[in-house]
Design goal:
The complex is a heterodimer. Chain A has 21 helices and 25 strands. In chain A, 33% of the residues are buried. In chain A, helix 6 runs antiparallel to helix 7, helix 7 packs antiparallel against helix 10 and helix 20 runs antiparallel to helix 21. Among the domains of chain A are: 127 residues, 2-Layer Sandwich (Beta-Lactamase), CATH 3.30.450; 76 residues; 155 residues, Heat Shock Protein 90 (2-Layer Sandwich). Chain A is of the alpha+beta class. A 7-stranded antiparallel β-sheet of chain A has the order 1-11-3-2-6-5-4. In chain A, strands 9-8-7-13-12-10 form a 6-stranded antiparallel β-sheet. Chain B is of the alpha/beta class. Chain B has a single domain, classed as Rossmann fold. Chain B contains 5 helices and 5 strands, in the order E-H-E-H-E-H-E-H-E-H. A 5-stranded parallel β-sheet of chain B has the order 2-1-3-4-5. In chain B, helix 1 crosses helix 5 and helix 2 runs parallel beside helix 3. The chains are: A alpha+beta, B alpha/beta.
């Protein structure tokens, strides 16, 4: 065991379990492309030097340890540094151009200087005068202009990635964004055509350990020029004056963590550069650049990229604010459309689900449902009806407030674990606290959403199956860490559903008020109808009575002066008044039905049929027609109806049957029926003249008669009365008829009737 | 001497009543009053003897039949008089109201003259003690 390893604070074997504790800031190496010297900031005595110093600047590191910095630097450079130290503006001098003769060759370097923890650290990076003449100012100006032209945020991502790619020439430039938990996703990518896309890939927070993220905020650009090269060790490991390793937190050319190197090698990546993207003081994400062969980017270009990162960050805030504002506008538009739809359709469910705009349009989600008074209506992809009902039951028991939200439903309610793919996120509002009416929105599991988005393609990441570290492994790890979770509901989304809830309550209240108004108007209309009927019965009859009276007097007093025609005329006047009176009576009867309260009784059809039939026959007996025969198909069912109205109903049906069968050779009327599924069905059938069924819709209308003949008297109100009585009982009537053979009326009356009607 | 007072505003109805009473029933000692106010004044000031029957219509100008009846019932000298309502109404509310105020009988005006003759005969037989037969029967 050598001396170094005893004191080496950097673990020899690093595995994935200690990723988060890996002391990457004190990795005692400098990447092979650079060399490093560290001095005591006060005395300028050289404390550490990288072991490749001789190769780089022609001076062996062991020769200079303990000497003054002055001994190895040109006097002008040394003066620049000491002046900067005095002014405490060391960074302002970067980079300092410097050259060394090594093996008869003159090598140029950019010297990058910084101070940290009482050390003055000097890093020598190769300087290529041809590359360095590139006009970065011009490129930067163009890049900024392009970024500014982006209209939407996703365009900003894309353009920024392209500009960095153009500037640096990396094979792949990705925009990588962290979420609240630190998980990362590739949201934009610019790459050479031959490479597979990483767009949409997700990485667990552990892929970029906490301390790496912290360092990243300090040192915004991080370069790895060649993962396969051997880094150069810093000598000695511990400073003789402080017995501590050299802290390379701010070093640009710091060695790379072995874990990270393995990860990059597994991907086939040879060189990388990362540029931190800071937003509101937090690490928002980064530009991650990959190259598949060694690549070094000089100080000037790195600074240019860093500046693009800052411009990008500014645009993030700007666009985020714009998008937030327009999404608020969008949501409030959607809400007002929903409200309008509810109002137009007079129905909450109709308005929220069955129209052009639905509750799914409020924000990103795949399914929603409304549970209202026991009815469930769903839209999009939702759990099954049973699952939604059990969820509502659970909400009833566990949440008394108007609203509930989670992005990990299966954790709070494990019964939903088997639908976590479509319902990991739940946002739910309860419309009326006392009723179990819910509107729920479901959000799919994050992993599912990523797959639906079409990324990552399985083939892209399949080939690295057996490696310890790989994007596929990362993706698996990320999947595990977000298992059962949906993307979270934003404050804005929650507020919009709460405001929708208020809209719905407003609508229900508005609807209630309208119904109340209609009811009042209806009551008023009925009252007016009542007094109208009264007027009709009183005022219309008086002149009729008089016409009749005076015509009668004419007949009594002047018949001697009248010839036969004159007498016929006066008789017609008398008969017409009688007819008019019966019309008035019928229409009054008709108008009264529907205003009286039903008193439901159990009634025997046969009793009503036979007694009414006998009464009607009695009236008809003096006529010269053949009397009809009544056939009761017993057993007849019991009906549940208002006795007075049922009597009217049977009177009208039977008198109709008698009337229209009176011309038949052997007039016959049949009454039969049965009960099925809580509904009583019965029929009244005659063998009379019948009618053409194309007039079916007319026969139940008031004052409609299909025949206009003296043989069949009537006002055309009877069947209208029948229909109205049946409707009063929530029943229905139908008719079948064949001309010349007869007519059958079918009546259906429910057994359980609303007694309060 | 007046046996019967009829309060009826419809002149045609009045004509028919008169004819039926005089020609068919031979009732001559009656008086017709044509509005509620006139009737009330008559009962208050000019009623010299007690009629056997008062017939009231419901719809009357100025003071309707109900109001008139209730005034009669309040007045000492008329409170006991037999009053019959003869109206075109067949409404239960009207019939109930009439009896509540204290009518002695309620009859709906018949639709035709034949009916009217029969009704008036029945009334006069019962209230006026007349027993003349209707001519054409």
């Amino acid at each position: 065991m050598n001396k170094n390893s005893i004191h080496n604070p950097y673990p020899v074997e690093v595995d994935l379990s200690n990723c988060d504790t890996e002391p990457i800031h004190i990795i005692p190496y400098v990447q092979h492309h650079a060399c490093l010297i560290a001095c005591n900031q006060t005395t300028l005595e050289i404390i550490h030097a990288s072991e490749n110093l001789k190769d780089k600047i022609g001076i062996a590191h062991l020769d200079i340890i303990g000497k003054s910095l002055e001994t190895i630097l040109e006097p002008t450079v040394f003066t620049i540094i000491t002046d900067a130290l005095k002014k405490e503006e060391v960074l302002a001098i970067n980079p300092v151009r410097i050259g060394f003769e090594v093996d008869d060759k003159y090598l140029s370097y950019n010297l990058i200087v910084h101070t940290y923890q009482q050390r003055l650290i000097l890093e020598f990076e190769p300087y290529d005068p041809i590359v360095a003449t590139t006009n970065y100012q011009y490129s930067l100006g163009k890049a900024i202009l392009n970024i500014q032209q982006a209209k939407e945020l996703h365009e900003v991502y894309k353009i920024a990635a392209r500009e960095i790619s153009l500037l640096t020439g990396y094979d792949r430039v990705m925009v990588y964004k962290f979420d609240q938990e630190g998980h990362g996703q590739v949201i934009a990518e610019e790459k050479s055509a031959k490479l597979d896309s990483f767009l949409g890939l997700n990485y667990p927070a552990t892929d970029i350990p906490k301390q790496a993220r912290a360092l990243f905020l300090i040192n915004k650009v991080r370069l790895k020029s060649n993962v396969n090269s051997t880094p150069s060790a810093i000598y000695p490991l511990l400073g003789p004056d402080n017995q501590a390793p050299l802290d390379l937190t701010h070093s640009v050319n710091r060695g790379v963590s072995p874990i990270h190197l393995e990860y990059l090698r597994n991907m086939g990546v040879n060189a990388t550069m990362s540029i931190a993207i800071e937003n509101n003081g937090k690490l928002w994400g980064m530009f991650a650049c990959h190259h598949y062969s060694p690549k070094f980017v000089n100080f000037e270009l790195r600074k240019t990229c860093e500046f693009i990162g800052q411009i990008f960050s500014g645009h993030l805030s700007l666009h985020a604010a714009n998008e937030y504002r327009s999404s608020i506008l969008e949501v409030s538009l959607t809400k007002s459309r929903l409200f309008e739809q509810m109002s137009t359709n007079w129905n909450v469910i109709q308005g929220l689900i069955n129209q052009k705009t639905t509750i799914l349009d409020l924000f990103k989600c795949k399914g929603a449902c409304i549970l209202s008074e026991g009815n469930l209506v769903t839209i999009g992809t939702t759990p099954s009806e049973d699952q939604i009902r059990s969820l509502a039951k659970w909400l009833n028991e566990h949440n008394k407030t108007a609203f509930f939200q989670t992005n990990e439903l299966s954790r709070v309610f494990p019964a939903m674990a088997n639908v976590k793919d479509i319902a990991s996120g739940l946002l739910s509002i309860r419309i009326m606290p006392e009723l179990n009416n819910y509107i729920m929105w479901f959000r799919a599991e994050l992993v599912q959403e990523v797959f639906w988005a079409g990324n990552p393609k399985e083939k892209d990441i399949q080939r690295d199956n057996d490696m310890r570290l790989s994007p596929r492994k990362s993706f698996e790890k990320w999947k595990e860490s977000v298992n059962g979770q949906s993307s979270p509901w934003s404050q804005h989304e929650i507020e919009s559903v709460l405001s929708l809830r208020n809209d719905i309550k407003d609508f229900i209240y508005k609807k209630y008020r309208e119904v109340k108004n209609y009811n009042e108007e209806l009551t008023k209309a009925y009252d007016e109808l009542e007094s109208f009927s009264y007027s009709v019965s009183h005022d219309l009859r008086a002149p009729l009575r008089n016409i009749n009276g005076f015509a009668q007097i004419l007949l009594e007093d002047y018949s001697a002066q009248l010839d036969e025609y004159g007498k016929d005329v006066v008789n017609t006047i008398v008969n017409s008044t009688t007819h008019m009176n019966s019309l008035i009576n019928d229409i009054l009867t008709f108008s009264k039905i529907g205003r009286s309260n039903l008193i439901i009784n159990e009634l025997k059809i046969e009793n009503y049929a036979s007694s009414i039939f006998n009464e009607l026959i009695l009236i008809d007996q003096h006529k010269n027609s053949t009397l009809p025969k009544l056939i009761l198909k017993e057993p007849l069912p019991l009906v549940y109806a208002d006795a007075i109205l049922f009597k009217q109903l049977m009177q009208n049906l039977l008198s109709n049957a008698i009337k229209y069968s009176s011309m038949a050779d052997a007039p016959q009327i049949e009454v039969g029926g049965h009960t099925k599924d809580n509904v009583v069905h019965f029929y009244v059938k005659d063998n009379g003249m019948g009618f053409n069924l194309k007039y079916k819709s007319q026969i139940f209308k008031v004052f409609t008669r299909l025949i206009n003949s003296d043989k069949y008297t009537g006002n055309g109100v009877g069947l209208a009365i029948v229909k109205r009585i049946i409707e009063q009982h929530n029943g229905s009537i139908d008719v079948d008829s064949t001309e010349g053979e007869g007519t059958t009326f079918f009546v259906s009356l429910p057994i359980s009737n609303n007694q309060d009607k | 001497m007046i046996d019967l007072i009829i309060v009826e505003d419809n002149p045609l109805d009045v004509h028919l009543y008169k004819r039926a009473l005089e020609k068919e029933l031979g009732v001559l000692n009656y008086k017709i009053l044509v509005d509620g106010e006139e009737a009330l004044l008559y009962f208050q000031n000019q009623l010299n003897q007690i009629p056997k029957l008062i017939i009231l219509d419901i719809k009357l100008p100025k003071i309707d039949g109900f109001e008139l009846l209730s005034q009669l019932r309040k007045q000492k000298n008329t409170s006991f008089l037999p009053v019959l309502m003869l109206s075109s109404s067949n409404q239960v509310v009207d019939i109930k109201k009439a009896y509540e105020i204290g009518v002695n009988g309620f009859m709906t005006k018949p639709d035709n003259y034949e009916g009217l003759k029969k009704a008036l005969k029945a009334i006069s037989d019962y209230w006026l003690g007349q027993n003349k037969t209707i001519n054409n029967e």
